[in-house]
Amino acid sequence: MTVIERYEALKNRVVKRKDEFTALINFMENETDYLSSPASTRFHLCRKQGLLEHSVNVAETMLKLRSSLAPEIDEESCIITALIHDLGKAGMPGVPQYLENEPTPKQKQYGFPASIPYRINESLVYLSVPVRSLYLAIPYISLSESEVQAVMYHDGQYVDDNKSVATKETPLLLLLQYADTWSTFVIEKNTKRK
Ligand SMILES: [Fe+2]
After folding, report:
1. Is position 87 within any domain?
2. Of 18, 61, 127, 146, which has the fewest CB atoms closer than 10 Å, so is most exposed?
3. For residue range 18-65, what is the model confidence (pLDDT) as tens digits?
4. C-alpha angle 83-15-80 in degrees, rounded to nearest 5
5. Residue 175 structural domain
């Protein structure tokens, strides 16, 4: 299945909150760079559509974890939080967070790509990725406290700012955090450019 087919299958599983979710998805797809953005400047999935592929990997992994560890958690909460956890990486409408780097003239001459595929767009006001994700999503969909916690702190204790959530994690956050790290470091290993 292509990434788009996997993404469509995930979207189709959101039924109870379909109206809000559709409004959110329309915004993400049509007004932000969600569908074309890379997932990073030079690490995992630093290529066109990398952010979408990462979001789909995280959602699918999170659903697997949910099935075996916590089937009582709402499946739609998993899909929604996974698909939006890194939405902030798309930047703001019309202002993408990632800008494509041009190869140097010498690289061009020999048919090589730029050494670092993307750079961060410094014209954005600094917000952490999860804060921007929530800022973008909340006008379109109401999220529960647990969903906000999951998106906000999905990097877990890798990030100093997240000290405050240590020992207070909900099961939803734990699933999202593990699905995110598993996707990044296992599924997406060696996806720098391919
Ligand atoms: Fe992520």
Report:
1. yes
2. 18
3. 999 999 999 999 999 999 999 999 988 999 999 999 999 999 999 999
4. 15
5. 3-94+124-187
